[in-house]
Each structure stands twice: as C-alpha cells, then as structure tokens.
Amino acid sequence: DIQMTQSPSTLSASVGDRVTITCRASQSLSVWLAWYQQKPGRAPKLLIYEASSLQTGVPSRFSGSGSGTEFSLTISSLQPDDFATYYCQYYGSHSRTFGQGTEVEIK
Amino acid sequence: QVQLVQSGAEVKKPGASVKVSCKASGYIFTTIGMHWLRQAPGQRLQWLGWINTGDGDTRYSQNFQDRVTITRDTSASTAYMELGSLRSEDTAVYYCARDKTGNDFWGQGTLVTVSS
Q1: CB 3.0-4.6 Å disulfide test: which of A58, A65, A70, B7 passes with B21?
Q2: What is the pLDDT of residue A32?
C-alpha cells in the first residue's frame, strides 16, 4: 500500500505569509495527487488536482507542484479564511489514500 | 448545481449494522462513480470503497471488505454504504464523494456513533 506523509503537522503563520506544505509518497504517484482544505465540522474542499491544476473557484493564491514522490502546496499570501487543516490525497484507480494533515494556525 | 445530500446521524450498538444514503442531484448520476470515506475524531480521512454508479461494480478497501457493502439505486440517484459488525472504533463521520479529479464534490457527512 502507498503511504502518504505530510510535513509539518502544524504550521503557525500570520496573515500575508507565504506558506508551503510538503507531501511525500512511499512510491511514485505520477501526478495523481490532490490537495484539500478542511475546516472544523465541514467536508473537505478540493483545491488542487493532478498535482498542479487549480479547481474551479479556488483563489489563485493556492498553487501545487511536484510529481513522482514529492509534492507541495503553497499559499502565496495567507488570508484569514485560510486557517484550516490541509490534506494531500493520492487518487489511484478506484482507491484513495490521504496524508495525516497539516493544521495551519494563527501565529 | 451539484449536490450530494446524506442521511442523518445514527447511534448504533456494537455488533449492529448501519446504512447511510447519499442522494445526488445536479448531474447525471450514472456517469460519475461514488466513493465512501470516513473520518474518526482527530484522525486522517480513510477510504472505504467505490461504486461504478453505471453498472454497479464495486471496489473495497482491504481494511473493510468483509464488513462494507456499497450499492446504488439509479432510479433515485442515490448511493448507499452499509457497514456491519460495528465496534466503538467505527465511530466517525462518513462521507460520500464524487469520483472526479480526486473527489470534486462531497456530501455533508453523516455522524455514526457506536456505543453500548
């Protein structure tokens, strides 16, 4: 089974900061990697798919990069609405595997 | 607009079964598969299984394949997830999510509590 590891587990940042979250896979994923934002009591929201494609309606301050086993999510200028937990996801053929999550908290 | 609306919260005793529904609207139900996932308190998201809403073919996680059954009713545009032999560790929020570019639309979640 593919294992997904995110870092850091928690990130403290201020409004306006540039933040980057990393996701590493135990084997190559090609580009089948997505990023989600989740707020307490809510379902996850798709931000990025195919490693770097921005989902419709998602602000352009979110970007994704990487391929193979190493990926990253960058928020170019953190906004108050962005304080949440972020998950990476491998979406293979008919299965899904998630990282453990990164909580972005107010510094 | 695409919507996935799930059934309400459930409380079950250990050993019982639970069946959660997910009604789709805003698109042609049989053209996009459906996944079921769950999130226990403070835990990462966990995949349970997938159904081809067109022909009913299914795939299950090895962790749940002996306890989970996913079905669909095309006339009602609804997918179902049934989990049996419940134990306390199955207490979680259960989600359905469309099989597109990862999971592009999610249901609102259904809290299942397993307690004696």
Answers
A1: B7
A2: 95
Tell me the C-alpha distance between B24 and A46, whole Å.
Answer: 18
Dihedral sign for Cα atoms in the order A93, A48, B90, B25: negative
Alpha-carbon torsion angle B79, B53, B24, A40, nearest 10: 70
Q: Is A55 in contact with B104 (Cβ distance < 8 A)?
A: yes
Question: What are residue B110's DSSP bridge partners?
Answer: B94
Is the pLDDT score of A69 beyond 90? yes
Closest CA to A37 of A62, A70, A14, A3: A62
CA distance B80 to chain A (A): 17
Q: Is it the case that residue B108 has pLDDT exceeding 90?
A: yes
B63 φ, ψ (degrees, to nearest 5): -70, -20
Q: Looking at beta carbons, which residues of chain B come within 8 Å of A43?
A: 95, 97, 106-109
The nearest CA of chain A is from the CA of B15 a distance in Å of 27
CB A58 within 8 A of CB A74: no
The dihedrals phi and psi of A80, each to the nearest 5 degrees, come to -55, -35
The reply to whether residue A89 touches residue B103, judged by beta carbons under 8 angstroms, is yes
Smallest CA–CA distance from A49 into chain B, residue: B101
H or E stretch at A100:
none
